[in-house]
Amino acid sequence: MLRSIIAAFLSFPMAVSAQTSQLSDQEISDAYIYLLGRLLVTRQQQLDFQSGFKWNELVHQKPGAVDWPNPNLDVAYSEAWVAVDDKSCTVVSVPKVEKRYFTVQVLNGWGETLTNINERLFPTRPSGEFALCLRGAKAEIPADAVRIDLPVRLARILARVELGDDWTQAVALQNQFKLRATGSPALPDIPKTPIFELQQFPGVEAFDAAAVALDSEPDINTGLEPMREKVRAIAKLASAPGERSRIDQVIRTKAFADFGAAGARIGHGTIQNHWARPGVVGEYGIDYLTRTLVNYGGIWANIKPEVLYYRSNTDASGAQLNGDNVYTLTFPKEGLPAKFANYFWSVIAVDGERFRVLPNAKNRFLLNRETKPELNADGSLTLYFADQKPADAPDGNWLPTPKGSVYRLTFRYYGPTEGVANGTYYPPALVKR
Fold first, then answer.
1. Which end of the chain is more exposed for a tag (fewer CB within 10 A), N or C?
2. Is the model's pLDDT at 6 over the cut of 60?
3. Helix (H, G, I), strand (E, B), or coil: what is residue 55?
């Protein structure tokens, strides 16, 4: 008996080697990028609870106070992690909001948008109480509540209220959004996965957390089952020292490079005028590559009918945007940004590593309708990006971009229309002066 146990133990590395030799570098890279999409969400979840979040309780953030990549500073955010089960739902109370954009976005633990609560999806009753329930749950809910069934037991809520030109009223509305559980739901454990800096991804240790990451939240997209199995297989192989070293090497040389190369187009997106437009956003299907890239560069992105994002980090010549330079972005009279957004538009500059806004003495971090940009004499609109305001730039058209900064821009269209909605439109290229 002892000999057979020893023989089995000694043969284990050989068996592992035989298995892993059948896995190509590309397969390891793909599995890593797939897993990373989930780890970016569990990373944020752990940071949220460390900062004081509690299940089924909304946190009303002060305008501009959120700390995640590429924040939208046009809105006041309220955030929560929601837990539901077979006997308990979570009720969202939504105030009456008029002539101001708002939405209550509900996401799962992979960054997929499950639903939104607003007048677009609930035109006959966009306010009142909405009960988020586990699909099939036999839970009591208020008689007048609209029931919304979820395919998962936990969800992330991100409520947005447009700040507009009256922040006081926006914050007052924000604080009227409420959450409450109808019972005592079983509260899930917070997945313990690596908490890493966005500029320093984990290596093979990411696969040490694979079981926790995958078991704690199902991926609702059909067609990705083989990828999950591949992640689990690599996680098992990573327990053998020799294979662990090879897997780590592949991650650091190939997976990181593959991920970086895919970033320019936002996965399977397209680029025109040096602006990248994602092919999918908020709902990803089998496009896990784009999902991971969005979770990395702008977590909690919403679906296309709500907002469309364009990103640029280069000027018309293809050179990297840099705060040492002055750039202009000119929209023709017939193509002003407001034409393509039912609600509002904005452009924000963030640093190239952590994707946070650029500090500046003016404390201006975006351009939008509220900065009151002025049109040119011919009806066109020119926006300016520079460390100091150019002499010919109206103040409301200028976004400070400090010297020495390497940055990128994100243009948002809320309630996208026309070419933004159908993918035929791209903002003009940035021109270096």
1. N
2. no
3. coil
Closest CA to 43 of 80, 70, 68, 63: 68
How far, in Å, CA of 321 to CA of 156, rounded?
A: 34
> Rounded mean pLDDT of 20-46?
93
Contacting residues for 105 by C-beta, under 8 A, at least 6 apart: 113, 115, 116, 157, 158, 159, 160, 300, 302, 306
Angstrom distance (rounded) from CA 43 to CA 63:
23
Task: Using the structure block, give the residue that is written with the tokens 């953030």.
Answer: 61
Which pLDDT score is estimated for 124?
95
Q: Are 402 and 322 in contact (CB under 8 A)?
A: no
Distance CA 335, CA 380 (A): 8
- With CA atoms as reference, report the closest residue to 104 among 85, 88, 119, 117: 117
pLDDT at 21: 54
Which one, of 334, 337, 414, lies nearest residue 379 by Cα?
Answer: 334
Q: What share of the chain is helix, strand, coil (3-state, %, to 5)?
A: 30, 25, 45
Distance CA 292, CA 37 (A): 4
Structure tokens at 362: 């003016």
CA distance 156 to 421: 26
Distances (CA, A) of 314 to 311, 319, 320, 388, 424: 10, 5, 4, 20, 20
pLDDT, one tens digit per residue, over 179-205 is 999 999 999 999 999 999 999 999 999
Predicted confidence (pLDDT) at residue 7 exceeds the cutoff of 80 = no
CA distance 428 to 431: 9
What crossing angle do the helices spanning 256-263 and 25-50 adopt, rounded to 10°? 80
The CATH fold of domain 270-432: Jelly Rolls (2.60.120)
Across the range 324-344, mean pLDDT stands at 97
Instruction: Show me where the domains of the chain are located.
Output: 18-45+191-263, 59-181, 270-432
If one compares 212 and 4, the residue with the highest pLDDT of the two is: 212
CA 215, CA 44: separation in Å to the nearest integer? Answer: 18
Determine the CATH number of domain 59-181: 2.60.40.1610
